[in-house]
Write a structure and sequence with these properties.
Layout lengths: L16 E3 L5 E10 L6 E7 L7 E4 L3 E4 L3 E4 L11 E3 L5 E10 L5 E7 L6 E5 L3 E4 L3 E3 L10
Amino acid sequence: MFFNKNIITSDDILGKDAVDPEGEIIGVVQKLHIDKEDKNIVGITIDEGFMKPDLFVGIDLIRTFGVDSILLKKSPVDKIKGLRVFDPDGKDVGFVASVIKGRSNNVKGIVVKNNILGKNIMINNSEIKQIGFNVILKRNPDKIKQE
């Protein structure tokens, strides 16, 4: 049998926790994505848990395939989908329905599904104060010019 300490199998990756740079477990790796021409891994799919969409993470965001977990270089922006969005006064605006990505996995903006009005609100990155367990806006969405 061929053995090389630098080679791992899918068994060494699938089912492992994917951990972001802040130490938060994002979810469990459930799939490998392999380029069929180059025969290289291009990314992984992470199961974020019940009622959350699966998350694709490109190989460029993976720091290392560790013994017990997969460590990421930076948090994937798609992980904020589904987070609650609040205005500066703490009023619930809705939830992140989708993320508008810029270059290098940066957030250019978010689309918020507003529960009260039943419509989507586009929020530019410049209007976001903080992204953590929730998203907090700098201003009330009524005062943000919709383009």
